[in-house]
Protein 1
Amino acid sequence: MFSFLPCFKTRRQRTKSQTQSQKQIEEKANAIESLPSWHSPTENTLLFQAFEWHVPTTPNTPDKRSHWRRLQHALPAIHSLGVTSIWIPPGCKGMDANGNGYDIYDLYDLGEFDQKGAVGTKWGTRGELEDLVREASALGVGILWDAVLNHKAGADGVERFEGVRVGDDRRDIEDGDPQEIAGWTSFTFPGRGTTYSPLQYHWHHFSGVDWDDAHQRKAIYKILDPSRPDKNWAQDVGTDENGNYDYLMFADLDYSHPEVREDVLRWAKWIMSVLPLSGMRLDAAKHFSTGFQREFIDCVRSQAGDRKVFVIGEYWSGELRALLRYLEEMEYRVAVVDVPLVERFSGLSRTRRADLRGVLKGTLMEARPGNALTFVTNHDTQPGQMLENVVEPSFKPLAYALILLRQGGHPCVFYGDLYGSCGGGQSPVPACEGQLPILMRARKWYAYGEQQDYFDQPNCIGFIRYGNAAHPSGLACVMSNGGPATKRMYVGRKHAGEKWTDLLQRDDDHPSVTVVDEMGYGEFPVQGMRVGVWVDSAADGRGCMKEPFDVDIYGSRAC
C-alpha cells in the first residue's frame, strides 16, 4: 500500500513553515546596515536607446530639426529621469541617406562628406553630432556608439572574382563548382577620398556576397582568393547556426584579412579620439569573429584611457546556453542582450493569467546579472521588424518595473516607449499610459540596496528594495496580471508608523495609504493588470515623481 501523505502539508505545518520563512526574512532585513551594500556610494545607472526604427527624416517633422539637434534639446529632461547614458543610432554614412545606418557604407564619414546623395546622415551632420556629445558631456551623460562592423553596403562599383555558391541554411556546404561572379565590392569613397583612412575596399577584403551581378542571381556566395587558399568563413563566430553564420547580409567583411583588421582598429582609435564615447554596441556580434571583437574592445578601452567603456554584444539568441557560451568566448568583457527575458515578457503578455513566478527563469538576468542588458522593446523587436517580439501594452508597466526596480541587469529604456513610435502612420503614443517617467525616477531615487522577493502567487508577485545609506527609503513593488490583489511584505521595523503611498496611483484613483505596522509589515494592494510602487510619502524625492515630462519630441504629436 502506497502512502501519499508525505506529499501534503497540514495547515499547522504550512503555518510553521511560513513563520520560519518570515523570521528569516526579518533577520536578513534587520542586518542589512552591516552589509557592504548598505554603504555603497554607487548611483544607479540607466541606458536610454535614443531612437526607434521609424524616426522620421528631418524634413518630415514639424520641428524641422535633425535628430542630433532633437536629442540635444531633449537631453536635460531625459537626464532628469535618471538616464546616465544614451545609445545613439549608427552615426556613420549608410548606403541610403534616409536609412537608419545599419546599411553601413563608410565608417569614417560621420555626416561630413557629400556621399550617397547627402552630406549628413539621416540623423544629422558631424557638427550637430559633436554638439550633442558636448551637451551630453556637460551633463555627465555618456554616449554609447552603435558600431556596425559586420559588413559594408552601397559599393561604388562592381568587381569580378571567383566565388562558390553555398546553401542558405548550410553555409558550410558548397553548392556547385567555383565560378566567376560579379559583386558590389568596390568601395572607393569618392567623396572622402583618403581623409582619415587610406584604405579602399575591394573583393578580397570580403568573405561573401548575396548577389551575382553577372548572372543577375540572388544567392549566398563564398568569395575565393587564389592568393589565399585558406580563405573561408570566420570559424570563431559565436554560433553554429546554418552550419556557419558568418554571413548575414550585404558584403561580409573578412577579418582574417590583415588590411581589414588594421583599418577597423584604426577607426576605433579615430572615433574614440574625435568623440569622448563611454560605450560601444557591437551590432550583429553573432556574425563576425569573436577573436577580432576581443581585439577591438581592447583597442577601444586602451584608447579611452581612464574613461570606462561599457560594451554591449548584440548576440541575438533565445537560448541561455548560447548567450553564456558567447560570454565565455568574450571572456566576460561585454554585456549581452537578454533575449530570453524579452521573449518571456512577450509570451507572458499574450497569455491570460500567465504564471508570473517564473518570469526570470532561464534568463541572463537570473544567470549572469552583471552581464545582462535588459530591455522590454528595441528597434529590432518593434512590430514588423525582423526580430519582432511584441510585448502587449498592458504588460509593459510590469516588465519595466521588473528591469528598472530590481537588482541585477543593466536596464535600457526604449525611445519608442518613452515618446511613442511613428510606425503605422499613427501619432506616437507613449507606453505605460505615460507613467514610464515615474518608473525611471523611482529607479533613480529608491531602487537601492538588498532585495527580498515575494514570488509566492501565480498572478501576483512582489519584491522589496531595502535601500542603502545614501538612499534609505527603499520601496515595495507589487504587480498583478489577474485581478486586484494585496501582498503583505516586510519593509523593516525602522519604517513602523510610516505612511506609504503608490507612486503610480492615478489622480482619479481613490487615495490609498498603507501604514507600516509596529512589526515592520505593510499590506500593499494593487489593481488588476497593474503595478504598484510603494514608498514612504515623506521620502526624499516624492515631490518630483509626477513632474510633467514633455513627450512631444517632434514639436507636434504627429510624426
Protein 2
Amino acid sequence: MIQTQKVIHHEHVSGRPYAEVLAAFESATGSVEEGFEKVAANARTPQDFERIFKAREGSSGFMRFLSINHGDWQGYFGTPRKALLSVIGNPLIATTMMRHELAVGLNVPVRLFIYEADDGKTRVTYDLPSTLMSGLENPQVHEAALKLDAKLVALAEHIAGAKAN
C-alpha cells in the first residue's frame, strides 16, 4: 500500500533564549536515555512496568528516549548551531493507541525539535501525532492520539512560552 496523508506541523516561536527553552524542556521531561530496554527489564509484571515508567515521567507526562544535538555536528560543516532533536514519549500513553493498532509504533515515540533560527528566535516544532496516524483510519487510535496531541501542545507551549502560529 502507498498512501498520502496530510500532516499538521506546529511551530512555537519563543521570546525566550534557546538555553532557557532547553532547560524548561529538560525540567518538564523525564528520561530513559540510558536505554528503554534496560529500564523495562526491571519489570516483572504489568504493575511493575507501570510503576517504573510512571516514576520516569516528567511533569509533562513525557520522557526523553533519545536526544540528538544537531547543533554540535553542524560545526563540522561551517557554523555550530543551537539545535536539538528529541524523541519523547511514554509507553503508558503509547499503549492507549497500540492496543487498537500495532502500526501506531511507527509514530511513537514522537519527535520534537528545538532550535535557534537565523533570526535569533528559538523555535519548538513538531508534527501532530494524530495526523501522523490518520492513515490508519482507526477511530479508537484517533481518539487516543488527540489526547497525545493535547499533551504535546501543552509541553511546547510551556517550554516556549508561546502558542503555535
Protein 3
Amino acid sequence: MMPHYDTIIRNGMIVDGQRNSRFRGDIGITDGIIARIGKISRDASCDREIDASGLIVAPGFIDLHTHYDAQVFWDPYLTTSGWNGVTSVVIGNCGFGFAPVKKDQRERSMRSMTKVEAIPMKTLETAMPWDWETYPEMLDSIDRTPLAVNVLPYVGVNPLLVWVMGLDDAKAGRKPTDAEHAEIARLLHEAMDAGACGWSAQCLGFAGDPDKTAKSNAAQSDFDGTPMPSDVMHQETRRVLAQVLGDRGEGFIELSGGRFVTNEEWEELAEISG
C-alpha cells in the first residue's frame, strides 16, 4: 500500500544544508514533518502537490544580522528576509534595541534608529506600540504580534546602560559602579530568562572618552552626532556581561569591535562566557 502524504513537493532541486551535493528529488510531508526525501512514486497520494520544477528546495535560512527591531511590529514577513527564503531572523544586533526603555526615553530611542537604520520617524511613531518598558514586556509584545518567521533577540547594550546609568552618564562613558554593574547583570539575566539569546554591542570608540571617539569617526554615531553608550563603555562592563553567560552556561555575544577590541580581550570574553 502506497503511503499517503499531506503534501508532496515534486521535482525540486534539493539543497539539504549539510554540504551535500544538490540533487533533484521529491519531498513528502506528513503532520508537519518531512517523512521522505528522494523519489516518491506517482502512485503515492497526497492532499496537496507542489511542482517545484526549476526551483531550489532548502531548509529555511537563518539571517544572523538584522535590525528588524521596529519592523517586526508592522511587517509580519520581515519581507527583505522572508521573501528570500529566510525563516529565522536575529534582532537586537550591534547594541541597538528598544528595551529596556523608560517612557521618557522612547522618542530618543526612535530618533537613534532614524540615524543608524534610516527608518523615518513618522513610521516609527505610527507603528511602534510601546506597550512595554522592560525587556520581558517587549518580548510579550512581539509574541502578541502576528509573525511568519521566527525571531531570536539579543539584548542591546545601549538601552541597558541608559536604563541603569541614565542617558547623560551612559553617553559620557562613566564607568558603572559596582551596584550598577550588578543591576546590569540582573537585567541581562531577566531578559535571558524571558527568551533573549545573549547580548550585543558596538564598541568602536575609546572607553570613557566620547570626544575622542567622536573625532575618530570610527563609530556609527547617534542621531545628534554623539557616540553610542556602547562605544565608550569600559572593558570591565563587557566582562560583567560575559560573566552572565558564563554563569548561565548559555548565550551568545555579538560584538562589533574592530581595532578597539583586542584579540586578547576576545579570548578573555570567550573564556568568561564559556
Protein 4
Amino acid sequence: MGYRLWVIGLMYIVVVVVLAATTIIEKYTGSTFVQFHIYGAWWFTLLWALLAALAIAWIVRRRMRNVTLILLHSSFIVILAGALITHLTARQGSIHLRNGKVIGTYQMNSDDGRKDSHALPFAIRLDSFHVAYHAGTMAVADYESRFTVTNSHDTIHGTTSMNRIFSYNGVRLYQNAFDDDMQGSTLTVNSDPYGIPVTYTGYVLLFIALIYMLFDPKGRYRQLLHHPSLKRGLLTIAILFTAAIFTPTLHAQPALQKDMAERFGKIYINYNDRICPTETYALDFTKKLYGKGHYKGFTSEQVLTGFLFWGSEWNNEKIIKVKGGALRDRMNLPSLCSVNDFFKNGMGYILGPLVQEYYGGNHDKMHQQVMQVDDKLRLIMELQQGMTLKIFPSTMKGTTVWYCPTDKLPQLSTQQRTFISAATAHLYNDVHHADMSQINGVIDDIRRFQYRNGRYSIPSRIRTKAEHIYNKVSFATILFMVNLTMGFLSLGWFIYKMTGRKQKRSDRTIERCLLTVLTISMLALTTCLSLRWIISGNIPMANGYETTLLLAWLVMVFSLATYRKAHLTLTFGFLLSGFFLLVSHISYMDPQIGQIMPVLNSPLLSIHVSIIMAAYALLSFTFICALMAFSLRMTQRWNDTTAVALQVLSQLFLYPALTCLGLGIFIGAIWANVSWGQYWSWDPKETWALITFMVYGASVHATSIPQLRRPMIYHAYQLLAFLSLIMTYFGVNYFLGGMHSYA
C-alpha cells in the first residue's frame, strides 16, 4: 500500500487527543501517575517517533524545496531528538547541604520510588545560606546559597539563587529549598550534557524559521498582505456614547470627613507584604466586604476609619455582601448583613459550627460560602483590634520592621514605644472629640515618624502618586463599558453597511471617531498597566487579572496597527478588548498588588508571557472573523468577495499568531530550564499551549489539506480551534490547575 497523507493526519490527531486526555486524567489521578504511566511510558515516546518519521517521509516524498518550510519542520525533528536524548541520558536529583559539611553524592528517585545515591564529579560544602527580603517586609526577594566546590585539581567558590544556575563539569545546580533553621539548603542537581545542546539547536532553528516565515518575499504571508480582497468589502463604522448618572445614597453613620479620611489614607502601611498608602488597604477592605470600592456615599477611607473609630455603630451597618443562596437560605440571611447579624444572644457566632465543619473536611459549595463570610468578619475584627495596622516602622542593623499598635515592642527605644502608644491614644481621642486640627497634627506626626524610621522601605513619591491615581480610577470597569458599547454599535453599523447602502461623506467622519475612541481607550489601558508596573516594580504579568488586561491592550494595539488594511478590525478591537476587560472586571475584581515569587522575577518569563498573550490576542481575531462569516451567511449577505476577504483577513492574523505562540512556548521552556532544570515538565498549561499550537498549526496546511481552502470550512475550523485556546487560558486556570495556573 502506497504512502498516504491520511496516516499522518490520523497520527497527528491521536497525539493531540492523548495530550488532551492526559491533562484531564492528571486532574483526578495526580501528576505522579501520568508522569510514570503516560508521559514516561515507552508507547508515548513511540507516538512522537512515529509522527516524526511520517513527517520526514512526507517531506522527502513531496521533494519540498522551500527553505523556510524545510527549516521549520526540521526544527521540530531536532527538538524531539533533543527531548529523546534528555529522556534517555539525563540525570536529575537533589542534594541536601548543611553548613560546613562536605558532600560528594546526590539523591535520585528510582522507578520504584526509592532514592538512590549517585556520586558527584566533585565535593561540595555549604558556606552560607541567605534569604533576601524586600525592604521593610517579610516578602522574599531571593534565596541564595554560597558553597565551595573541590575536586582533585581545583577549588572554586560558587553561588546559586533563583534564576541563577551554577554549572561545573557538566553538572548544573539550582536553588530548590532550605532548612527551617537557615543552616541548610537543598539544591536540584541536573546533568544533561547532550540533550540540552540538541534541544536548544532546535529552538534556534524554530525561532529563525518562524520569524522568517513572516518576511519571506516568496512566502504565503507576503502574498496575503497584497491580496486584492483586502481592498474590497470590509468597512466598519458607527459611534454613540451613553453615560449613567449615579446618585449616592444618604448615610447617617459617624465617619471622618472626606478630606480628613483622605489624609489618613496617606499614612503608609505594611500591607500584603509591601509598603503602600493606607488608602490601598482601605480600598481592598471595602471591596472585600461590599464588592465595590465605595459604600453608599462613603469613600473607602471613610469605611475603614468608620469601622476603626466607631466600631459599635458600624457593626450594625449592613455592608457585608453574602454570596450564594445556599448559605442565605439555611441561615435565613439577607444578601447584605451587618457584623451583629452573625452574633445572636444565646447562640454566639452563628457560623461557628459551620466553620468547624469546613475545617473538618466538608468543603462543599455552602461551606465555601461560609468561609468567605468568615474571612470578611475576621478582617473587620483584626482591624478593630489594631492587628492589621502595621504603620510604625523601626530600622535596626539595616533591617526595617513595621509594627502595629498592639505588637510587643521589646527592641524599640523608649522614645519610640512612647510615641506609638501616645499617637494611637491621641488619634482615637481626637477623632471622638472631632478636634480636626489635632487629628491633622497626629497624622502628620505619624508620617514624620515613618519617614524618620522607615528609611529605604518608604516608597518613592512617584510610586506613591502612581498608586493614588490607580486607586482613584477604575480603569477596567470604565473601559469594558466603553469598548463593548462601541463594539456592538459599530458591529451593527457594519452589518447595515453590508446591505448595499451607498457610501456617504459622513462615513469617513464616523470612522475617524471610532479610530479616535479606540486610540484613547488603548492609551488609558496603557496608563493602567504602567501604573501597576510602577507600583509593584514588576512587569504586570504576575496573575490572571494582569495578563487579561495585557490581552485587551494587545488586541487594541493590533487593531490600530492593521486598521488601514481592513477597517473591520476596529470593530474586532472594540469587541475583543471589551470582553477581555469584562473578564478582568468580573473574575478578579482588581486583586491586590504584591511582590512576585523570586522564581518569577525573570526577564525570560516576562518575554514568554508577553509573546504568548500576543498570540492569544491574534488568535482571537481569527475567531471573530469566523463569527462574522457565519453571521453574514445566516443573514444571506454572503458573497464570494466577502468570503475570501474574511478568510484572508483571518490568515493575516493567524500566521503572526503561530509565530508568537511558537516563540512564546519555547522561550518559556528556556526559562523553565534556567529556573529549575527542566525545559519541559508536561504541566497542564504548557501541554495545552502545545495542543493549541498544533491545532492552529494544522490550519495553515491548505496545500496538504485542500478542504481548508474553502472559506466556510476554514472558518468552521477556526471556531473549533478557538475552544483549545479557551481551554488553555481559562480551562487550565479554573479546572485543571497546575504550576502555571493563575486561579
